[in-house]
Known about the structure:
The structure holds 3 protein chains of 3 kinds. Chain A is an all-alpha fold. Chain A has helices at about 5, 10-40, 40-50, 55-85, 100-105, 105-135, 145-150, 155-180, 190-215. Chain A contains 9 helices and no strands. Chain A starts with a helix and ends in a 5-residue tail after the last helix. Chain B is an alpha+beta fold. Helices cover about 35% and strands about 10% of the residues of chain B. In chain B, strand 1 (about 5-10) and strand 2 (about 20-25) form a beta hairpin. Chain C starts with 15 loop residues before the first helix and ends in a 14-residue tail after the last strand. Chain C has a 5-stranded parallel sheet, sandwiched between helices. Chain C has a 5-stranded antiparallel sheet with strand order 11-15-14-12-13. Chain C has a 4-stranded antiparallel sheet with strand order 16-10-18-19. The chains are: A mainly alpha, B alpha+beta, C alpha+beta. At the B-C interface, helix 1, helix 2 and helix 3 of B face helix 3, helix 5, helix 6 and helix 12 of C.
Amino acid sequence: MSALISSSIARKVVMALSGLFLVLFLAQHFTINLTSVIAPDTFNEWSHFMGYNPLVQFLLQPILIAGIVVHFAMGIYLELQNNKARAVKYSKFSGNANSPWVSRNMILSGMVVLAFIILHMYDFWVHEMAYKYVEASPEDPTRYYAETVEKFGPLWRTLIYIVAFVLLALHLWHGFASSFQSIGWNNKYSAGLKTFTKIFAVAIPLGFVFIALYHHLNPITH
Amino acid sequence: MKLYLKIWRQKDADSKGQMVDYELNGVEGDMSFLEMLDVLNEKLINEDKEPVEFDHDCREGICGACSLMINGEPHGPDRLVTTCQLHMRKFKDGDTIVIEPFRATAFPVIKDLIVDRSSFDRIQQAGGYISVNTSGNTVDANAIPIEKENADDSFYAAACIGCGACVAACKNASAMLFTSAKVSQFALLPQGRVEATERVLNMVRQMDLEGFGNCTNTGACEVECPKGISLENIARMNREYLQASMKG
Amino acid sequence: MGILDSKVPSGPLAEKWTKHKNDINLVNPANKRNIDIIVVGTGLAGGAAAATLAELGYNVKTFCYQDSPRRAHSIAAQGGINASKNYQGDGDSDYRLFYDTIKGGDYRSREANVYRLAEVSGNIIDQCVAQGVPFAREYGGLLDNRSFGGVLVSRTFYAKGQTGQQLLLGCYAAMNRQINRGKIKAYNRHEMLDLVLVDGKARGIIARNLVTGNIERHAAHAVVLATGGYGNVFFLSTNAMGSNVMAAWRAHRRGAFFANPCFTQIHPTCIPVSGDHQSKLTLMSESLRNDGRIWVPKRLEDAQAIREGKLKPTQLKEEDRDYYLERRYPAFGNLVPRDVASRAAKERCDAGFGVNKTGEAVYLDFEAAIMRYGKEKALTSGLKDPDKDTIRQLGEEVIEAKYGNLFQMYEKIVDQNPYKTPMMIYPAVHYTMGGLWVDYNLQTTVPGCYCAGEANFSDHGANRLGASALMQGLADGYFVLPYTIGDYLADDIRTGPIPTDTPEFEKAENDTRERLQKLMQAGGKHSVDYYHKKLGKIMWNKCGMSRNEKELKEAIQEIAELREDFWKNVKVPGSIDSKNEELEKAGRVADFLELGELFAKDALLRNESCGGHFREEYQTKEGEALRDDKNFKYVAAWEYKGKPSDAVLHKEDLVYENIELKTRSYK
């Protein structure tokens, strides 16, 4: 059992499982966000549910935060270890000849996504926490839509948002399929699954970008 | 043709190495890459210089001794060949070729382009075998039929020549393809299943101890492997490992 | 001249080995722990011996010049391994394998050894399967077989074109298991430079650590040499670059007789030489002759047009081709033994029918096989009236599944697609049947010094059949030597560890150092390769596929002169006490320069043609080999007396009690 914690394969499995969990979260987040474009009322309703349901707040939310922390901490740790595994570097290394750029630069795309998440947390989550627990403001099940759309007002934030999601797409392009390889999932469904992960990797971030642009271009006029 | 070579020279394990430039005339397309280096060495010897040392032996792509990072790729730009099978017709007159040793912390340089790959041996020693006595007192070879597909897959995994190109190509210097090939060969055979749990745990432990990096599934190893060992073996090893650690 | 005792046990042929095992002394398990054995060479014979000896309880030290035992040149064997399993039900038996091997060897091998080899052959396959060697299988899950030259049954087990690799990795795995248990200590990147005798017994070796250059002393109660053949005396051969005769030759200089040095196998199907830069030759497995047909153009003008590039082989009509093996040897056709096929190729090329630029190549054509397999495949896939292209495509797929790696290898080297145009092949030096003389127990004439695998002379006579080298290596290593050596070691249970600080070790080490110094301090005119290539030319031209008295005498003289020049003028850069490949090569070539002369001397003495040894003076009207059983039915074992010219001949008469000597015919 100790091997499960200390070995290189175990660490990879941790990366894979936390990654898959974050992919699930991403899908769910996307579904809710999409309602902000097609049905603002539903968006408000669901957002309110997520914000005030104790199960979500006190069980799922900590798990999510833990998932994010684990994924990033382990990613950085592995990267440092991998650097040590080749102390003297090549003077010429033709990585592009044998592997996609994205697969070799997960740390880069990951770090950009991390930076974005920090901004995102500051924008939404910190604000939300303050609203609920510091200012102890009253529940308002209709405020979410307007708040969200307002955030996409400034062009700079929308642009950051777009860049981050392009990088996330790259990250998912390799990472999503890769996590199945890491947990040893390899059978007759693998090819189909791989196609699905690639579609997901492009479609979901693109969807987020669409939502951002939509709100940026359609501000609420008072 | 005329070539410009940039070659890593290092006196011994403790010395600091450097890239040195050489010019070489009269290279022919029919020469193998190592024969081109032979010509260079003959020239260096005649000039009273020390020849470039590199590992090589069978020169037909099966012993796994030859290595070399050629223009940033292990065994050079051609696919499914070792350096000894790479022919100079893949290069053009006036080309510059950068030649370096396979680099990994677990493959320390011995001299010039020669590296110490005994870490691979130690991984095999940790469990890359089936514990049967070699007395020959075993069951008849045909007593246990083996599904052709499994036997073939086992063979494809066993085709690994232990050259280390997978490690050299991997941005993380990971030895997962090498280790998984041996794990797979035995995992696919009924004879090997008996010790499968212990084997995968021990081999992976040794692999980690040697200081190889972690697999990030870039797939570079599979592309550069002169024997075309498949990434499926890594997935199989991951699976075997997970099962084994649940059991152990 | 003396007569050698082969120590073959008495009794009926089929019972000799069992009886012998029952009669010889054993060492009890507790005592084995106090006995050390050195095994030099970690190919099939050495690796198998080391693993089994360690498993029996002896303390084993292995030595190899490569960076890992897994790289020994056994790994390059392609086609397969013979065993008399009779899984195909085609009438195979131990006797038939024994008979084929003796006949294939042109009646110059020892009956009892060969029978034992056949007897344990089936066991090898059982052993390897248990070790996880992934042999080729049929869809029913059982092992598949194919045929090789010189036999009429299918008894060859294989793993694609990488049988040697798979068997060696099996050995290597068995060794690793013992290394893990601490029973084998592996000294890789070490080269044996001398054998140390104490009181007339082999008690250790002097080895050089090839990384640090340190000269080391290693002691043991017995020394096993499994260091392969000496084909590299020809410079160009299918051997690995590092393959050498040093260990065997050092033992020879210390008293081990060297047997039949002139028996060399020239393999018919190798990729032809392309230029002066060539460093080695690549074999195309004999298994290809199962499906490939060998031919040259019938007309000289067609051959010339092909050489000049004006005509393509595929343009030549069927009736304009000379399938000379099928023509000359209808019964065995393309599957005649190697020596016969090689000479036939040389005969055609010498007559001007060669098909590459140098005129030294013949075609190996798969067209017929591709179409035959294609039709078969189309039928079994239920395709009705397939067109020619479909048949060809299906056929190419079948051929690829069988020989894919060989075809790929050919294409990489020659830059031609062998699926579309016939391969060009030419004979090349491949294997040496000669080697250190050993008795039935595989002991050399130096007590305590054993020799196994290609390094000894024992089983293949004057010509080895395909897929028999792997069989012999593993038989010697797994099943013969570990038992016979016990008979000798039974006297050593009270000896205790052998010290290395004795005068004998001291002297051997000093001799070694002096020799290395001498190489380093020579005149410095020409590189080691310069001499090696010159030696190779002499050997190939005058001691190659066909030999005659005049040229052999010239060769003896030329080699002696070259050797003298070498010691005066060789140039070895670098230093002794560091990694120095040129120094390693120099030591090996120095020994080749002695062996080469003995080789020619042996060939000159043997006034007959047999197997791989073809003397132009001794041939039939049709150009077939003319053997002389009256005068040469013996093993020529040479004793070292200083210069090769002073070597003393000892004979071991070959007694055939179970086989009638016949003229070999494959017609």
